[in-house]
């Protein structure tokens, strides 16, 4: 019987995602044994500091990639939005399974608080750990009190229920994969109520809702197994959005968003760069060839830079330098 070791973070969401991949692999190869190996990452251990202050996206993948390179595991399952845009030498992103819900979701403590960003009361306390979300929230509702919130989904929901926040902004895909929400607007999680946010209002994170399966580049055996899970639509979207982010040299410290969808006209990509205070949001969009997603990502990034994004990035970098 063939056997592979799958590396995963230990959070409930990471395990659910990895177990889904394991089941899919067992279905594709009935005699395959898939064993999960839990690996703790820096991002899992450092929970009392904002992500933008700790470091970059590698916080959630570095230890997993080290284990993969060392041969301790055969594949790793990541939330693609947590990954740096450059893959280490010797590794490759071999599969992107079908994308889940890419949207953000507004989770309010109870139904009386509001049903969308417009109806939240003035001064409502909103928890989010993302500069991307913070920039867009400040743009639409500068009166809101925004506070950083860390921890897994259950921890954040407990903080909401305890009254620390009036609302949270969470990834819809995580809520749905954990079985907490079925996607119905106004459905409840305990006393909390969930409302999806239209990407026109809150543009998602790069590759939000997409899983990335990473393997060693020279491991043809594992590649032949995981390629069965690769979805061409998810792959095109992920590569376009990641190329945009890579061109902008973005990460946790810069408010960047992107969302790609396949239409009859081709692959449509919309991107955003926002100022930290939300006073300025720059958008650009373009449709291109799904077979050349990275070229589309770079093209939209260039439009963003030309429309004012370059000035925003320079200001943010000066602000970051001043804090050091």
Give a short synopsis of this structure:
By secondary structure, the chain is α/β, with parallel strands linked by helices.
Keyword list:
10 helices; D-Maltodextrin-Binding Protein, domain 2; single chain; alpha/beta; six-stranded mixed sheet; 324 residues; Double Stranded RNA Binding Domain
Structure, explained:
With 324 residues, the protein is α/β, with parallel strands linked by helices. It has 3 domains: 1-97 and 211-230, Periplasmic binding protein-like II (D-Maltodextrin-Binding Protein, domain 2, 3-Layer(aba) Sandwich), CATH 3.40.190.10; 104-196, D-Maltodextrin-Binding Protein, domain 2; 232-324, Double Stranded RNA Binding Domain (2-Layer Sandwich), CATH 3.30.160. It contains 10 helices and 14 strands. The strands form 3 sheets. A 6-stranded mixed beta sheet has the order 7-6-8-5-10-9, sandwiched between helices. Strands 2-1-3-11-4 form a 5-stranded mixed beta sheet, sandwiched between helices. Strands 12-13-14 form a 3-stranded antiparallel beta sheet. It starts with a strand and ends with a helix. The model has no long low-confidence stretch (mean pLDDT 93).
């Amino acid at each position: 019987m063939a056997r592979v070791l799958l590396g995963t973070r230990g959070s409930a969401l990471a395990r659910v995602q990895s177990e889904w991949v394991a089941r899919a692999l067992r279905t594709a190869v009935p005699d395959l044994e898939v064993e999960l190996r839990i690996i703790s990452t820096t991002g899992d251990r450092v929970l009392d500091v904002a992500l933008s202050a700790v470091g970059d996206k590698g916080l959630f993948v570095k230890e997993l990639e080290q284990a993969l390179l060392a041969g301790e595991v055969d594949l790793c399952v990541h939330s693609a939005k947590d990954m740096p845009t450059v893959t280490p030498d010797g590794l490759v992103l071999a599969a992107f399974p079908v994308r889940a819900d890419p949207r953000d979701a507004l989770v309010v403590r109870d139904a009386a608080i509001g049903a969308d960003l417009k109806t939240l009361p003035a001064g409502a306390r909103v928890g989010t750990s993302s500069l991307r979300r913070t920039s867009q929230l400040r743009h639409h509702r500068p009166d809101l009190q925004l506070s950083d919130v860390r921890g897994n989904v259950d921890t954040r929901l407990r903080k909401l229920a305890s009254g620390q926040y009036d609302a949270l902004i969470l990834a819809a895909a995580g809520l749905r994969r954990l079985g907490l929400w079925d996607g119905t607007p106004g459905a409840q999680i305990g006393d909390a109520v969930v409302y999806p946010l239209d990407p026109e209002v809150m543009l998602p994170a790069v590759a939000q809702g997409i899983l990335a399966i990473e393997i060693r580049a020279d491991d043809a055996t594992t590649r032949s197994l995981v390629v069965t899970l690769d979805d061409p639509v998810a792959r095109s979207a992920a590569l376009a959005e990641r190329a945009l982010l890579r061109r902008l040299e973005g990460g946790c410290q810069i408010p960047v968003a992107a969302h790609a969808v396949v239409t009859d006209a081709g692959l449509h990509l919309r991107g955003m760069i926002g100022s930290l205070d939300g006073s300025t949001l720059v958008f650009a969009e373009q449709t291109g060839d799904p077979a050349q997603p990275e070229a589309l990502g770079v093209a939209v990034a260039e439009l963003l830079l030309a429309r004012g994004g370059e000035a925003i990035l320079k200001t943010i970098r000066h602000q970051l330098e001043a804090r050091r």
